[in-house]
Design goal:
- The complex is a heterodimer of chains A (214) and B (436).
- By secondary structure, chain A is of the alpha/beta class.
- Helices cover 55% and strands 14% of the residues of chain A.
- Chain A folds into two domains: 2-130, Response regulator (Rossmann fold, 3-Layer(aba) Sandwich); 136-212, Rossmann fold (3-Layer(aba) Sandwich).
- Chain A is built from eleven helices and six strands.
- Chain A has a six-stranded parallel beta sheet with strand order 2-1-3-4-5-6, sandwiched between helices.
- Chain B is an alpha+beta fold and 436 residues long.
- Chain B folds into three domains: 6-216, no CATH class; 224-310; 314-433, Histidine kinase-like ATPase, C-terminal domain (Heat Shock Protein 90, 2-Layer Sandwich).
- In chain B, helix 10 packs parallel to helix 11.
- Classes of the chains: A alpha/beta (214), B alpha+beta (436).
- At the A-B interface, helix 1 and helix 5 of A face helix 7 and helix 8 of B.
Chain lengths: 214, 436
């Protein structure tokens, strides 16, 4: 799997290159700013790009803007935006048109290598990876909605994991329950929230996010 | 030493740009005074003009003269009365601009438009023109008189036996005349004396004028103070916001990224060690742990620097200890001398400390100095901090570093003076109140 990395902190960039190479990814380019990222994407057209939000020159959101451009210009390239803090607004901007091949994670998540690599692979193959922090924010924001209030604690957990972009199997593994039980929870959640069920993982993430973010 | 300096200053004074600028300002002052004096003459002048034009001054006045005069004359006076305030304003505005351009003295425009106060200033221009006019007179004729011995030989081409009238020269004490070369040297001596006196006369004239301008053209003192406070409050708010931003940035780019990398390395090491049993890749795990270890130490160092930047703990022991500690971390040797009978307010100590810290950092970056002296003393209710180096000078008070300091100092009504000619040395004097 081919990856491009855009991260301005050299330490972190080198660490990521090492981690991904070690895990069998092919790192096509590791760059330090948004312009270099754009040209690297155009040149290599990787499966996925890891993009830091704050990069030179303005250190604000150039990474995010580049990510949005890349999603528009290269629909086949998965985009994993990562940052030291999460902004719900950024997440909604990223997911605005389609929730496929996109991720938004805290940098802290690289500490759990397996989870991080899993999220990256998911994004590369067209899936979604949202940070639990973002999902938490969205859930809290949507707390007042009638549907959410009627969920059981277990169903909330399942909903959060769904919103993060995990598959039924992933949810089952995370909660240590059988896939059958997960399916039952999912059906209940969709019924309570009034969402059309029997959708693919991606579409259901979108449905869930649209629901909780109003 | 200081006497020599004083003498040199006095001798040089007439030949500085400042003297020339003051001369221009004084000339403008005299012209204004003449114009102001001319105003009262306008009314009778216009009256006479009307009488003359209507034929009243001729032998047989036309019958329409008296009514025309009766109408036009009051009209002229009324017009003058109406125009006096706008004219006063205009003259005031011109002088405010002149002071700004020529003397680099900024008199703030008042919030309300100046009216009768500006007219008062215009009237004051008349007495003010006396020292100004004298100054310019001495300046110009001092130079002229000084040149007499040079001109003298040029006029010595008359046939022998010709009796010459005396050559006249103007001085403040009247005309003096001479028929001999020796006499021209006397005139030159008088010229030199005039030239030396001129700068001080012009200075007195401009200073008095500026004082009048501040009183009559500037905003009232209370309004001025309110404006100052508004500006310094805005600065304080900006400063606090900028500081928070810098802090966030430092944490984001420093300790936070180091810790994230450290966590990543430990995560990778954990994988290399495996869940249980013999580790699959011990060598790599060891390397990663070593990397993480170093990262942790770097993060600690980063945080330590950051914490010291927020508030150096040693400052709690007083400015003396804090500056002494600061001096030890400077690349250039620093001599610190703090003589304070008691401790100033904590906020003042903090500002003084950061000023010293910034000045040392500046010196290390730009001055190429070999030693720096920092003196902190008390003068009445003010704390004086002086930093002096033996470097190449050329520090720019409007640069980001020094102007930032000036802003911080201004918040507590302090002042900073930077003396840093090209070639050095640099001396920065900072004055702070001892209590906020």
């Amino acid at each position: 799997m081919r990856v491009v990395i855009a991260e301005d902190a050299a330490m972190m960039r080198e660490g990521l290159v090492r981690l991904l190479t070690d895990r069998g990814f092919e790192v096509c380019a590791a760059v330090a700013d948004a312009d270099a990222l754009r040209s690297a994407i155009a040149a290599a057209v990787p499966d996925v790009a890891i993009i830091d939000i704050r990069m030179p020159p303005t250190h604000t959101d150039e990474g995010l803007r580049a990510a949005i451009d890349i999603r528009r210009d290269h629909p086949t390239v998965g985009v994993l935006v990562f940052s030291q803090y999460v902004e719900t607004r950024y997440a909604t901007r990223l997911l605005a048109d389609r929730p496929t091949g996109v991720g938004y994670l805290l940098k802290d998540r690289v500490a759990d290598v397996a989870d991080f690599v899993d999220a990256l692979t998911r994004v590369a193959s067209g899936g979604t990876a949202l940070d639990p922090e973002v999902v938490g924010h969205l859930m809290r924001a949507g707390q007042d909605m009638a549907g959410l209030a009627s969920l059981t604690p277990r169903e909330r957990e399942v909903l959060s994991l769904m919103a993060e972009g995990r598959s039924n199997a992933g949810i089952a593994a995370a909660l240590v329950i059988t896939p059958g039980v997960v399916e039952k929870h999912v059906a209940n959640i969709f019924a309570k929230l009034g969402l059309p069920s029997s959708e693919t993982d991606n579409r259901r993430v979108l449905a869930v996010l649209r629901h909780v973010s109003g | 030493m200081s006497n020599d300096n004083g003498l040199m200053t006095a001798l040089r004074a007439p030949f500085t740009i400042l003297a020339l600028r003051r001369a221009v300002f004084c000339v403008a002052g005299v012209v204004t005074a003449v114009a102001v004096l001319a105003v009262p003459a306008i009314v009778p002048g216009v009256g006479v003009l009307i009488l003359w034009a209507s034929g009243a001054l001729s032998e047989k006045p036309a019958p329409a003269v008296a009514p025309v005069f009766l109408v036009l004359f009051p009209l002229t006076i009324a017009l003058l009365a109406v125009l006096v305030v706008p004219i006063g304003r205009a003259i005031g505005a011109v002088h405010r601009r002149l002071a700004d351009r020529l003397l680099d003295e900024h008199v703030a425009a008042p919030q309300a438009r100046p009216g009768w106060r500006a007219v008062g200033y215009c009237l004051l221009k008349v007495p003010l023109a006396i020292p100004q006019g004298y100054g310019v007179f001495c300046y110009v004729f001092g130079l002229v008189n000084l040149s007499y011995p040079v001109w003298w030989p040029l006029f010595r081409n008359h046939p022998p036996g010709t009796i010459l009238g005396p050559v006249w020269a103007l001085t403040p004490f009247g005309r003096i005349g001479t028929r001999t070369l020796g006499g021209t040297f006397l005139i030159a001596a008088a010229g030199l004396a005039m030239l030396l006196v001129a700068p001080w006369l012009m200075r007195a004239g401009t200073m008095l004028d500026l004082a009048a301008m501040r009183r009559l053209l500037g905003p009232g003192r209370l309004a001025e103070r309110v404006r100052e406070l508004q500006v310094s409050r805005a600065r304080a708010i900006d400063d606090a916001a900028a500081m928070m931003r810098r802090l966030e940035r430092d944490l984001h780019d420093g300790a936070q990224i180091r810790l994230a990398t450290l966590a990543m390395n430990l995560g990778m090491a954990t994988e290399k060690l495996g869940a249980d049993g013999p580790p699959p890749d011990l060598a790599q795990a060891r390397e990663l742990v070593a990397l993480a270890h170093r990262g942790a130490k770097d993060a600690l160092a980063d945080l330590r620097d950051l914490v010291r930047g927020i508030h150096p703990p040693v400052l709690d022991n007083g400015l003396g200890d804090a500056l002494a500690t600061l001096a030890t971390s400077s690349a250039i040797p620093v001599a610190v001398n703090v003589e304070l009978p008691d401790r100033p307010a904590p906020a003042i100590e903090t500002i003084a400390y950061f000023c010293a810290s910034e000045l040392l950092a500046n010196a290390a970056k730009h001055s190429r100095a070999t030693r720096i002296k920092i003196v902190v003393a008390r003068s009445g209710e003010r704390l004086l901090l002086t930093a002096e180096d033996d470097g190449v000078g050329g520090a720019n008070p409007d640069g980001p570093g020094l102007s930032g300091l000036a802003r911080r100092i201004a918040v507590v009504d302090g002042r900073m003076r930077v003396h840093s000619p090209a070639g050095g040395p640099t001396r920065v004097k900072i004055e702070l109140p001892t209590h906020v």
